[in-house]
UniProtKB/TrEMBL annotation:
Cell wall biogenesis/degradation recorded as keyword: no
Keywords: Kinase, Phosphoprotein, Transferase, Two-component regulatory system
Acidic residues: compositionally biased ranges: 1-16
Residue span of region Disordered: 1-31
Class of the enzyme per the UniProt entry, highest EC level: transferase
Protein name as it appears in the record: histidine kinase
Stretches assigned to the Histidine kinase domain: 373-585
Catalysed reaction, written as an equation: ATP + protein L-histidine = ADP + protein N-phospho-L-histidine
This enzyme's EC code(s): 2.7.13.3
Gene3D superfamilies to which the protein is assigned, alphabetical: 1.10.287.130, 3.30.450.40, 3.40.50.2300, Histidine kinase-like ATPase, C-terminal domain
SMART domains named among the record's database cross-references: HATPase_c (SM00387), HisKA (SM00388)
Source organism: Azospirillum doebereinerae
GO molecular function: phosphorelay sensor kinase activity
Amino acid sequence: MTGWDDEPLFGPESDDPVTARPSRPSGEPWPILVVDDDPQVHAMTAVLLRDFDFDGRPFEVVGALSAAEAKAVLAERPDLPVALLDVVMETEDAGLRLVRHIRDELGNRRMRIILRTGQPGQAPERDVIVGYDINDYKAKSELTAQRLFTTLVSALRAWRDIVTIERNRQGLERILSASASLFETRSMRAFVERLVEQLSRVVDAGSDPAILACRRMERGDGRAQTALVAALGRHAPKIGLPVAEALPPALAEAVEDGFRFQRNLYDDGFCVLVFRTREHGVTVLTLERTEPYTPDEHRLLELFCNRVAIGFDNVCLYEELITLNRSLEQRVEERTTELAANQRALILAKDRVERALERELSARNNQRQFLGMVSHEFRTPLAIIDSAAQLLAMRAEEVEPEMLERLSVIRGSVLRLTGLIDAHLTDERLESNALVLERALVDLPGLIRDATAPFRVAYPGREFRLELDEAPRRAELDAHLVGLVLANLLNNAVKYSPPDCPIRLRAIADGPMAIIEVTDQGRGVPEVEIPRLFDRFFRGSGADGVPGTGIGLHTVQQIVLLHGGAVAVDSVVGQGSTFRVVLPL
């Protein structure tokens, strides 16, 4: 069968409704501009993208039904990352003109443009790729849900990389410009003052910037204190005052931490930058603003620090190396201890797993013995009950016809119990890889009739329609196992469809393959449950109130696969199901 993700998104129009899958909550969506004059394209794209997300963010479709409408959208939202454009809209080249507008008139080189056309002959791919600055070209007939998702993810990654490169390029230009003027200064005081001025150009300092520089200064009594040596903004009048008096407690403590720990610190409302110089010791700068600093700004500030603080003291680097070495030695020791503990834990876990495996093997052996005992002990009584019910039915036809219905129930129960035993035994042999095919040439129509006969007896009021005129006369297969496949499919059809609805069995030849279909008019299977329908022990939502174990269809699939065939299902809720078995002849 063809997977849903492999189906073309835009094929011939159909009256069948599209069933939307439930959306999942996520972060801020990725806006995708869809420009197409067909509203169904917008609806289908929105429905399909609801099932996908990228980097924890879903997709949002921003629609435009014409190139003119798309221009209005782009005027309001120039930051849209990806556009899916149709070529033929209000004019035959409306999409291509829109590409020129985006690239040439708007100067937008970041947006990733994907042409998606239903008439590729009017805009040949080679000519469009060469003549227009687009990033991909897709025909609607070849675009599946998975390919759409892959195309969008590739485009979003490219857009994100371009934006990051531009942002970093602009930051680097500001850093180079700022650091070049800094290197022209000669005195430490002038350097610090110029440094304060240039920092506001490296990152956006906000509407009310407050930047200051602090250094350790000696007081008159010979003790050192931290004081402001340069400032911009509201702290400018406080130059020369101690940090504890001039700044709020939280900011003053962060400055002291900068001197104490000699590393950059980032908080929601400010950041602390530490400059270590060879001749003038340590200088700490703080930048305050209401907006938090982004990771990109962190990197720019770090790069700026590295650029302007090229005179770090070699002794400090050596001390850092010694500290790092000690930390590494400590980590090696901790890691060694941890590995020893993990090794002991692995040994204990290995022992537990071995014991659990022994218990599981013992349980499986007991299960096989139990199933063998059940099969041996139950089959003879069940055969006797079935024979007695047949004799009673023959007599009841003449003497007491009202007993026929009860006897039919008895025989149906015997059939179901016998089938349940066969299903469990076959499932156990399948799971233990002990099932071996015994292929032989069999009369396929006869095999289908034999498999249907017990159901006709057990359900006399049920109509079973056999369409075997086109069936192959001979097939090389395991008759017992294929009979079990048919019994499971017929049993499901009986259980999940009304008594007055017929069950159809159809067999045809298709080259070297035989196709057997079992069709009912029952409850049907929801589309979301079909991929799990053949899982072991799975029972769908429509199985409420119907007895069963959930291994029948799993056994069907495994037997068919052993024959080198395939099994599939077409189902509509409320209308019924068709199970299709394909077997090699």
